[in-house]
Design a protein that fits this description.
Blueprint: H1 3-10, H2 14-23, E1 30-31, E2 37-38, H3 41-54, H4 60-68, H5 74-104, H6 110-123, H7 128-139, H8 146-155, H9 159-170, H10 176-183, H11 189-200, H12 205-214, H13 220-232, H14 239-248, H15 252-262, H16 266-281, H17 287-298, H18 303-312, H19 318-333
Antiparallel strand pairs: 1-2
Keywords: DNA-binding
Protein name: HEAT repeat domain-containing protein
Domain HTH merR-type: 1-69
Length: 334
């Protein structure tokens, strides 16, 4: 079969077939009397093998080795191709993400594009100072898409930079809370904690709703941050979790302060006191737990708390009894 016929049937151009010949990949078995290349069935089969291997991303050099070297181990080459393909996909995905973010910033001209690119690069810098300056610039209105800020804050380990990023997010407008909520489902504990910390500083109603949902999160750290944030907003749903934090000695001082702030009216105060008393009544509560619960009761106003403190002033644990007695005296002196 002549080269033109081979090109039509194989889909490989005559020019490429000549290139294969020059490289020694496919040398036609024969020549016509006029000197034209003449391909055998075996030659054509080799052409299809070459094209199949090229479709995997092999170079022509690697294709030649694969077809002609009896000792060639394809597994190593395939592993290398997998690695290179993953690297290429990661690079292309990063580029696509950057382009989308630049588009989301709605640049009016190339100056805006260049500024956004510079800020995105600064957010990914190894220098905490550069990252912090980029975050502060965003807070002042620089064109940084919220998706980039969310990604940056969820991965930020430096507390100063993280604080600047949270501030920038709080000033960035709507749509942030939903993006942060995705971080609550991260398999990485640190990312979950950063996500809930950011939500705690979001002023919108969507963030408050997400924080309420987070009270049932399987991660105790997430539940704790959500409860403290909701307590500061005056949301009574946080009370049971705050009581648990006192019992478990997890930010127990902050939790007790939040309970005190939530006990602003008699009904709320009695409800909180009743929960604390219930935990005191459980037999599993050890001495240190009972002391923390007593200290928490000290800041809860109302008759329920006072009656509980009166009972605790006769407690077998001297530390509990002394704390309760001192608190009662202070109440009487008011």
């Amino acid at each position: 079969m002549l080269i033109g016929d081979v090109a039509r049937r194989s889909g490989v151009s005559a020019r490429m077939l000549r290139h294969y010949d020059s490289l020694g990949l496919v040398r036609p078995t024969g020549r016509t009397e006029a000197g034209y290349r003449e391909y055998s069935d075996e030659d054509i089969r080799r052409i299809f093998h070459i094209e199949s291997l090229r479709s995997l991303g092999l170079s022509l050099r690697d294709v030649g080795r694969a077809l002609d070297d009896p000792g060639f181990a394809p597994s190593e080459l395939v592993d290398d191709l997998v690695r290179r393909t993953r690297e290429r996909i990661a690079a292309e995905t990063e580029l696509l993400t950057r382009l989308r973010r630049i588009g989301a910033a709605e640049p009016a001209g190339w100056e805006d594009v260049l500024r956004t690119v510079a800020l995105l690069k600064a957010l990914g810098s190894k220098s905490p100072g550069k990252r912090q300056r980029a975050a502060l610039s965003s807070a002042e209105g620089a064109p940084v898409p919220v998706e980039a800020l969310v990604e940056a804050v969820l991965g930020e380990k430096d507390p100063n930079v993280a604080g600047a990023l949270r501030w920038a997010l709080a000033r960035s407008g709507g749509g942030v809370s939903a993006l942060l909520a995705e971080g609550l489902d991260s398999p990485v504990a640190e990312v979950r904690e950063r996500a809930v910390q950011c939500l705690a500083e979001m002023p919108d109603d969507e963030a408050a709703a997400l924080l309420r949902d987070a009270l049932a999160h399987p991660d105790a750290v997430v539940r704790g941050h959500a409860a403290l944030a909701l307590g500061a907003r005056g949301v009574a749903d946080a009370v049971p979790t705050l009581v648990d934090m006192v019992v478990e000695e997890v930010n127990d001082v902050d939790a007790a302060d939040a309970l005190s702030a939530l006990a602003g009216d008699p009904a709320s105060a009695d409800r909180i006191a009743a929960l604390l008393v219930d935990r005191l009544a459980r037999g599993a509560a050890g001495p240190s737990v009972r002391r923390r619960l007593t200290q928490a009761l000290a800041d809860i106003p109302g008759a329920t708390a006072s009656r509980a403190l009166a009972d605790l002033s006769h407690d077998e644990d001297r530390g509990v009894a002394l704390t309760a007695t001192y608190v009662l005296r202070m109440r009487d002196a008011r």
